Amino acid sequence: MAYDRDLAEQIRRLTSGVDDVSERQMFGGLAFLVNGNMAVAVSGQGGLLVRVDPVAADAWIDGERVTPMEMRGRPMHGWLHVLTDRDSHGLEEWVSRGIDFARSLPSKRK
């Protein structure tokens, strides 16, 4: 499954005024990076992948729309898979969470 290009465009609009944001195709989707750190990605399996503080991640998991991200059967701590309808289910809030956390990490840019 290819990633949702409409969702990617909405994220592109939400990040247009944010400094140090770049895009990179990764893992069958499109990732948005801040200072070289992945913040949020449009998943090739549908939905959104959001990077958050691993300590706070459990507070957002509801088992339906927000679940822990898994890669090859392994949970990826600090990453959430979010099913979003792009229009009303908090896309801007999720993108902001990912950007805020990625910005808190040491820059990977030289």
Q: Any overview of this molecule?
A:
- The chain has 110 residues and is an alpha+beta fold.
- The chain has one domain (5-104): Aspartate Aminotransferase, domain 1 (Alpha-Beta Complex).
- It has helices spanning 5-15, 91-104, and strands spanning 21-26, 29-34, 37-42, 48-51, 66-71, 74-82.
- It has a six-stranded antiparallel beta sheet with strand order 1-2-3-4-6-5.
- It is globular and about 35 Å long.
- The termini are far apart.
> What is the overall pLDDT average?
89
What is the H/E string?
A: HEEEEEEH
Q: How many separate helices?
A: 2
Q: What is the terminal-to-terminal distance?
A: 34 Å
Shape: globular
Total number of strands: 6
As for the CATH topology, it is Aspartate Aminotransferase, domain 1
> Largest sheet, if any?
6 strands, antiparallel
Strand-pairing-aware structural class: alpha+beta
Widest sheet, order of strands: 1-2-3-4-6-5
Number of domains: 1
Q: Quickly give the CATH architecture.
A: Alpha-Beta Complex
Q: What is the rounded Rg?
A: 13 Å
Helix percent band = 10-25%
User: How much strand?
Assistant: 25-35%
- Uncertain segments: none
CATH class: Alpha Beta
Itemize the secondary structure elements and their pairings.
Elements: H1 5-15, E1 21-26, E2 29-34, E3 37-42, E4 48-51, E5 66-71, E6 74-82, H2 91-104
Antiparallel strand pairs: 1-2, 2-3, 3-4, 4-6, 5-6
